Amino acid sequence: MNGFWFYLNPIFFILIKNLKLMFSRKFKDIVAGRLMLTAAIFSCTLVLIIAIVLFFRSWPILEVKSLGDLLLGNTWMPFQGEFGFFPFIMGTLYVTLIAMAIAVPLSILSAVYLAEYAHENVRTKVLPVIDLLAGIPPVVYGVWGVLAVVPFIAYIAPAVGNIGIPFFGSMGYTTGYSLLAGGIVLAIMVFPIIISISEQVLRAVPSEIREASISLGATRWQTIKHAVIRIAYPGIAAAIILGFSRAIGETMAVLMVVGNVPNIPSSVFDSAYPLTALIANNYGEMMSIPLYDSALLLAALILMLVILFFTIAARLILINIERRMSYG
Amino acid sequence: MDKLLEEKLWKFLMVASLAIVVGSLFIVISVIIWNGASALSISMITQTPKGGYYLGKEGGILNAIVGSLYLAFGSIILALAISLPAALALQKDYIGRTRLAYYIRLSLDILWGTPSIVYGAFGFIVMLYFGMRASLLGGIIVLAVLELPIMIRSMEEVLKMVPGELKEASYTLGATRFETTSGVVVRQALPGIITAVILAFGRGIGDAASVLFTAGYTDSLPGSLFDPVASLPLAVFFQLGTPFPQVQQRAYASALILLIIVLALSIASRYLSRKFTKNIIR
Prior knowledge:
The complex is a heterodimer of chains A (328) and B (282). With 328 residues, chain A is an all-alpha fold. Helix content of chain A is 77%, strand content 1%. Chain A folds into two domains: 2-64, no CATH class; 67-326, MetI-like (MetI-like fold). In chain A, helix 4 (86-117) packs parallel to helix 7 (179-203) and helix 4 (86-117) runs antiparallel to helix 9. Helices cover 73% and strands 0% of the residues of chain B. In chain B, helix 3 (62-89) crosses helix 6 (136-160), helix 4 (99-113) packs across helix 6 (136-160) and helix 7 runs antiparallel to helix 8.
């Protein structure tokens, strides 16, 4: 018996030594480091997991129909097995383009003013207000759209429709739930994104460039037009791309004001039916119809891939700028 | 064109567009207050919907207010447990400068941009796979996923601002990386971390599309993690969808309640980030 314990002694010795190490600060440091790394890697694998799950769930419909038929098909009749996404894709595209047509000039002019002209006092007061705009929930924007934008459009549509501007025609009566309403609501939602990024980009332009231009007798606007914007435009492009991807993915606010009629709109006063609204209105309900849920998940996958593409594009542009700025 | 005239013209355009942007904020807020305030009453925020509530009878939206708070608090705790370590790992003391960190940041940016309806659909598939039905837990998990990229990326920006000299001083005294991180970096960055948390909280409480399929909707207060739960944005959405003007009025009031919560959070974050500066060395 004595001999047995004697032989085990070195093992105990090593164990105790290890235990001491285990509770030592070094060990804590290593464990904490590993845990942090795990958390970081876990959160980035989510993108892959979401994309893979969506892909496998939308595979059944891709097996039966060609991608071309799905994307360019005009009829959406799930009961008859017809899944044409074209009206929805056009709906998303038109709403987003209208929103960008309103938001881009207004936000960039505002950003230029805030970065180049505004007094420090004005800037520190206006920027928080614009951040506030970013924090308002989509549903509240939707309610605002229903209360203010939709009636306004129903009021002006007949008058404007008769003038005969292309894409602004109206067939007599409109409810106001239209592309334009969706576009206006979305535009206000993307103001803060475009303004805050492009303001930062503009302020990062070295002041020597402005001084050089002004000392040659240029006005401030000429300086901005010929020097500052030339340097800042990739960053502004990135800001616009980020705003665009936010607008494409917005669901609730658009769903509430855009009318949700699946046809290809021919005027800004027509109703439309964007992809996001399609998923929100139908998913989870009609699971008994074959292929319906994989069609809707294909729509989700398309949205995600578009966002992925835009995010990577914006990112590459911003990285390029950072490099140029840091190496002069 | 005369260059001074051009200057004046463009300056006018800029001021006008800034006025439109800032003005639209005030229009949004005032339209919601104007329409919501008249329907807002004590019973709205102290009662759950009674029978026939959606036809215009007695009741309130306490179920949605409580449900939204549960969802938002639950998800923010879950998201904080993952995002704080992840943000700390992205410091340059750990993996911040590696190729891996570049891809992590890129995928977080993609997650940030992913529409919340996609999260909702994804969450629903996963819940079906595990045999769960729409529940508080499902909503919390999906909202946490939605909040993760926002919290990690904004915390990371804050952690970057911690002066390197402070860390070096701590290392010189013999502290390990973890001791430096938990004792110096986190304390120094605390106001910024709180701002990031409140930002994500506001995003979580206001998001409707992601909880549409995953948290469900119910007229009663949530009893357990596995019950369906109501939320404010969905309460607004459903009430607005009814054909009765009286119920629509309540949708405006619900939107006002949501707006007040979000604005209060936003103002609180600004105040708190000033207040939690006790441990900060400048």
